[in-house]
Design brief:
The complex is a heterotrimer of chains A (366), B (367) and C (316).
Chain A (H helix, E strand, L loop, with lengths): L1 H17 L18 H20 L3 H24 L1 H35 L5 H5 L13 H32 L2 H15 L3 H16 L6 H26 L2 H9 L4 H12 L1 H16 L3 H6 L18 H10 L6 H32 L5
Chain B lengths: L1 H21 L22 E7 L4 H14 L3 E6 L3 H10 L4 E4 L5 H11 L4 E15 L7 E2 L1 H9 L8 H6 L11 E5 L4 H13 L18 E3 L1 H11 L3 E6 L7 E2 L1 E4 L2 E3 L3 H10 L1 E2 L10 E2 L13 E8 L2 E2 L2 H15 L1 H11 L6 H12 L2 E2 L2
Parallel strand pairs in B: 1-2, 1-3, 5-10, 6-7, 6-8, 15-16
Antiparallel strand pairs in B: 3-14, 4-8, 4-9, 4-14, 10-11, 12-13
Chain C lengths: L18 H37 L11 H37 L2 H15 L3 H27 L16 H26 L2 H9 L4 H30 L2 H6 L19 H8 L6 H30 L8
Helix pairs in contact in C: 1-10, 2-3, 2-5, 2-7, 2-10, 3-5, 4-5, 5-7, 6-7, 7-10, 9-10
Classes of the chains: A mainly alpha (366), B alpha/beta (367), C mainly alpha (316).
Chain lengths: 366, 367, 316
């Protein structure tokens, strides 16, 4: 191993040190590095770091980190010498951006892997067709919770998407003056409502209307709406702002009324962005646990009426399965993980649908 | 080409969602009468309860057993916590509540107002709190109350401390540092544990008995699952949690009198016989002041006793019948056995059952 | 498909305010006002419920402390954890978004964007379970290393927690949680950067980085800040993940690697609410009010920054 270290050392250091010294290489500096250089440097860095670590004490994490650092430095130096400062910076940024991407992917993939590997055990037909009524210990499913989550989130989306989008349109297209400023400000305030407070608010509201101790799916939907509206407004607003004014002006010039311009030009232009924003908003609230704990509660059977009594939802189902398992613990924890996995699959499907919708509306530009 | 594949994806998605709904609105295990035939279902309707999460696992077993025999009945239980359960019960939001502590002062008065007279308060869930630890090479650990208190108060910091060694002659204790883990949420478990420390080791434990851990600093984790996880995750860790959830972790034997007693359900059940009923709660209340300092052999004093709160009278006849039937099942031998299996609790003694059964049987519609 | 083709009926006049226009504008305005009403409701709820705690004498409050003494450690913990999360997540998110929008090959980019969107959907309780089960044990080594070599910085003073459930890990979990949110917004904004500007920059001989620096980043600044604020909002208000991951015990400290940490406001509400009754509930809601005000302040600051640099917005 130690001999290998020395050999690779000289290989990488050689060209860097020799380049400026050898005059016949200088003309090439105006050109570009040959195509495979990046890979070569990368492999060399890996070997060098690997060799040094093999001598001092090996750890995979350290090896990867140091390899990337050395690779970045070597690439920058090499490119600076051969291609000049601007190209070198460009290459350095490319390495940094890619490395950052890699770093970011590690936890994300790890989360996905944790959920999938733990959740797959109970990802079976019974889970999708059974409720927990009469189930002790093993078996059972989350059919009731899946329906509950779809109903409550559906209601929340049905309330907050129109309100949120219309508000965003108002802010961007119509709003001048005090009211628009106030709305902008208070939408910001709204993003600051902690989810558990939204649940308490919804509960207090319905306790006032229906009576104390009320639990119903709709109350949960209201809590989620409070959380969802500001996200819809903000993301939609941001997307509408990006639509170039030229488009609007062109439309007006053709005599199209403003509302048609907004509906047929402005919104379709940025439909993809809006759809992403809305999917994000749904994704944000569909996994909310705290407000549903308070406003909706939990039940073991199927309840399809959001205006009467407790409903089960996937996050709450998962939470209670984790927090208060019986003995043995495993079937409870398995159900919790599978519920989380199902939640993610639901959002994935929503995401696909959102993308299809936005494709259908988006103008064919590129 | 792309659009085709995309619409195919959409079709698959639509099919999947459709299939979910087409599966019918009832779950596969629901609907249809219980075909056993033996169980006649006399009650129907829906009642809800809320309260202690400690009872959750047992409650699931009770609800499953009860609704299995009475297919027309639905019982809900929200494990929102004892405080939340008591509040909802007092407000009239739920028919019954589970609570890790008996009613006191203002809440007792409010509850009496709600029920229009006395309040039913019966112990239904008795569970030992184990002192769980994770220490390599030590499979059997004995601790005196003072040692437990010293460890959790932070005055005993290593495993080979003389105070621990004195309880464990002949055991090779390592010099590992002790990491005590406590609950980060307010809980009945903490309340009962600190009550025990205060009563059994007043010299080593100078803090109050509280539901919220009274000492700043140290390792803390949420809920029983969290504490178990943290104790498992570290080395030289020690915590307190429901004994049934301890899994692979070591459970310390606690010194009672001259012996060391392990946290078994049988040993925990004995504590109620050693304790006195709290006076002044009313005839239908079976609240106990637990005798933590008992030296009776084979009694485990670190115990959580959880109560069922209900009213002797309900304005609605159906609600009264259903509540009565459900509570009767909970305290019945079958019900207690079901809980022991599903949650590792200690079944109520026959003596106690014979006392509280008339109270539950007395639940009736007002008027 | 019908919407893609715009066939306007030629008119000679400038766009007149039609009935449809009035209805549309009215409903847009109505939606905005509805939001104000809802928010007024929430604010009224918070104030009425928090009021008893604000006026109660210190002796009746939990711990017999002044309300400020009770909330301060929570506020500190909230800000510290959210700050760690934001500092870690924002640069990473920008890089990830840039990678997806401008570096990765088109076909891969779509899949990556999709993956990131998916991660925004992971319920917070899952991040909590992941943090406690995977990240915390895995980071004990890192924290020991930080303590060994950088222990002279108060942040890493130790003693290192044996279970890894520290403020640093809580911040990391929050960072992972908000990364997909910031990334998703940033990616959309980067993709919307005018193609003409980008091509013009490249045509003038700019390298890819120079093009991004000149044409993409300035264009997306407002969106980036907005996305970061969305992420910060989530980090500040995150309840379950922090409650599960963090070992909380009321200590105010900058020490990120030990097991004694301040709780966060939202996590504290989740932890204490189930057993709270009477004035305890009011105190918790009062702390919620404080969180509300903090988020408000943060958002106002962000708005201020965005508005100072709003010249890149298309519609102003």
């Amino acid at each position: 191993m130690s001999t290998g270290t020395e050999r690779t050392d000289t290989v990488t250091q050689g060209p860097e040190l020799d380049l400026p010294a050898s005059p016949d290489l200088l003309p090439k500096a105006k050109g570009t590095l040959p195509k495979g250089t990046a890979w070569g440097v990368f492999v060399a860095s890996a070997l060098v770091v690997g060799g040094i670590l093999a001598a001092t004490g090996f750890s995979i994490g350290l090896w990867v980190v140091l390899t990337v650092v050395l690779f970045a430095v070597a690439t920058y130096v090499l490119s600076r010498v051969v291609e000049g400062a601007r190209k070198a910076t460009d290459r350095l940024v490319t390495v940094v951006v890619s490395a950052a991407f890699g770093v970011a992917m590690i936890p994300l993939v790890s989360v996905l892997w944790t959920v999938v590997s733990n959740g797959i055990a109970r990802f079976d037909a019974q889970f999708f067709t059974y409720s927990m009524r009469g189930v002790v210990g093993e078996g059972g499913g989350a059919y009731h919770a899946i329906l509950g989550t779809l109903i409550i989130t559906g209601l929340a989306a049905a309330m907050s998407i129109p309100i949120g989008m219309l508000t965003a349109v108002y802010l961007v297209e119509y709003g001048k003056g005090r009211l628009a400023k106030a709305i902008t400000f208070f939408v910001d305030v709204m993003t600051g409502i902690p989810s558990i407070v939204a649940g308490l608010f919804a509960y207090a509201l319905f306790a006032l209307i229906v009576g104390p101790g009320v639990r119903m799916g709709f109350a949960g939907a209201v809590a989620l709406t409070v959380l969802m509206i500001p996200i819809v407004v903000r993301s939609t607003e941001e997307m509408l702002k990006i639509v170039p004014n030229e488009l609007r002006e062109a439309s007006y010039a053709l005599g199209v009324p403003k509302w048609k311009t907004i509906l047929k030009i402005v919104i379709p232009t940025t439909a993809g962005g809006i759809a992403t924003g809305i999917t994000l908003a749904i994704a944000r609230v569909i996994g909310e646990t705290a407000p549903l704990l308070i406003a909706v509660g939990i039940t073991t059977g199927v309840n399809l009426n959001p205006f009467d009594d407790r409903m089960a939802t996937l996050p709450v189902f998962a939470y209670y399965s984790y927090v208060a398992p019986g003995i043995p613990r495993e079937p409870f924890l398995d159900r919790a993980w599978t519920a989380a996995l199902v939640l993610m699959v639901i959002v994935m499907l929503l995401n696909i649908i959102a993308r299809i919708i936005s494709r259908a509306f988006a103008p064919k530009t590129r | 080409m792309k659009t085709i594949s995309r619409s195919r994806v959409a079709a698959v998605g639509a099919l999947a969602t459709g299939a979910l709904f087409l599966a019918g609105c009832g779950a596969a295990n629901e609907g249809g009468s219980s075909s056993g035939g033996a169980a006649e279902s006399s009650v129907s309707g829906t009642i809800s309860g809320a309260g202690a999460s400690s009872q959750q696992a047992a409650m699931q077993a009770w609800i499953a057993g009860f609704t299995g025999a009475n297919s027309g009945a639905t019982v809900n239980y929200d494990p929102v916590g004892s405080g939340g359960g008591r509040t909802q019960f007092v407000q009239g939001g739920v028919a019954f509540a589970g609570s890790d502590a008996y009613l006191k002062d203002q809440q007792l008065a409010d509850a009496k107002t709600r029920c229009g007279g006395n309040v039913i308060e019966v112990p239904n869930y008795v569970s030992p709190i184990a002192v769980v630890y994770n220490l390599q090479g030590v499979s059997n650990l004995n601790l005196s109350p003072a040692a437990v208190a010293g460890i959790f108060a932070g005055t005993i910091t290593t495993w080979n401390d003389p105070a621990i060694a004195a309880d464990n002659p002949g055991v090779a204790l390592p010099a590992t540092a002790i990491t005590p883990v406590h609950r980060s949420d307010e809980s009945g478990t903490t309340q009962n544990f600190t009550e025990y420390l205060k009563a059994a080791a007043p010299d080593a434990w100078s803090y109050d008995a509280k539901g919220e851990w009274p000492i700043q600093g140290g390792e803390a984790a949420q809920g029983t699952s969290g504490v178990i996880g943290a104790v498992q995750g570290g080395q030289g860790t020690i915590g307190y949690a429901d004994a049934s959830q301890a899994g692979q972790l070591g459970k310390a034997n606690v010194k009672v009198g001259a012996d060391y007693v392990g946290p078994t359900p049988e040993a925990a059940a004995k504590i109620l016989e050693e304790s006195e009923r709290v006076a002044g709660q009313g005839d239908t209340s079976f609240a106990y002041k637990l005798n933590r300092t008992t030296d009776s052999a084979g009694t485990y004093p670190v115990v959580l006793v959880s109560y069922l709160l209900a009213c002797p009278q309900y304005p609605d006849a159906a609600q009264a019948d259903l509540t009565k039937a459900f509570l009767s099942y909970v305290i019945s031998p079958e019900g207690q056995q079901a809980a022991a299996q599903a949650a590792g609790s200690a079944p109520l003694s026959d003596t106690l059952r014979s006392q509280i059964t008339p109270v539950v049987d007395g639940i009736k519609a007002a008027g | 498909m019908t919407t893609t083709e715009v066939t306007p009926t030629p008119r000679t006049a400038r766009p007149v305010t039609q009935l449809g226009d009035r209805v549309f504008a009215g409903s847009a305005k109505g939606a905005g006002i509805l939001i104000l009403v809802v928010l007024a409701g929430v604010a009224a709820f918070l104030l009425t419920e928090a009021f008893p705690a604000l006026v109660a004498p210190a002796s009746e409050l939990p711990g017999e402390h002044n309300l400020a003494v009770y909330i301060w450690p929570l506020l500190f913990g909230t800000l510290l954890s959210a700050l760690i999360a934001l500092v870690i997540a924002t640069p990473l998110a920008i890089c990830v978004a840039l990678f997806i929008s401008h570096y990765a090959p088109r076909r891969i980019a779509q899949g990556l964007g999709y993956l990131v969107d998916l991660l925004a959907a992971v319920p917070s309780i899952v991040y909590g379970l992941w943090g406690v089960g995977v990240l915390a044990p895995a980071s004990v080594g890192l924290m020991t290393w930080l303590n060994d070599y950088l222990g002279w910085i108060p942040l890493f003073a130790g003693p290192v927690s044996a279970t890894g459930r520290t403020m640093l890990v809580a911040g990391l979990v929050l960072a992972v949680m908000i990364l997909p949110i910031i990334t998703a917004v940033a990616r959309e904004v980067f993709l919307q950067a005018p193609r003409l500007h980008e091509e013009a920059a490249l045509a003038l001989g700019a390298t890819r980085w120079e093009m991004i620096k000149m044409a993409v980043l300035p264009f997306g600044r407002s969106g980036l800040i907005s996305g970061a604020m969305l992420g910060l909002g989530r980090a500040l208000g995150e309840t379950m993940a922090v409650a599960i991951v963090l070992s909380v015990s009321g200590v105010v400290t900058f020490n990120l690697v030990s097991s004694g940490n301040p709780s966060s406001i939202a996590a504290n509400i989740a932890l204490q609410f189930p057993e709270a009754s009477g004035l305890g509930v009011n105190v918790l809601i009062a702390s919620g009010l404080v969180l509300f005000l903090v988020t408000l302040a943060v958002n106002m600051l962000a708005r201020y920054i965005v508005n100072r640099r709003s010249e890149f917005s298309g519609a102003n």
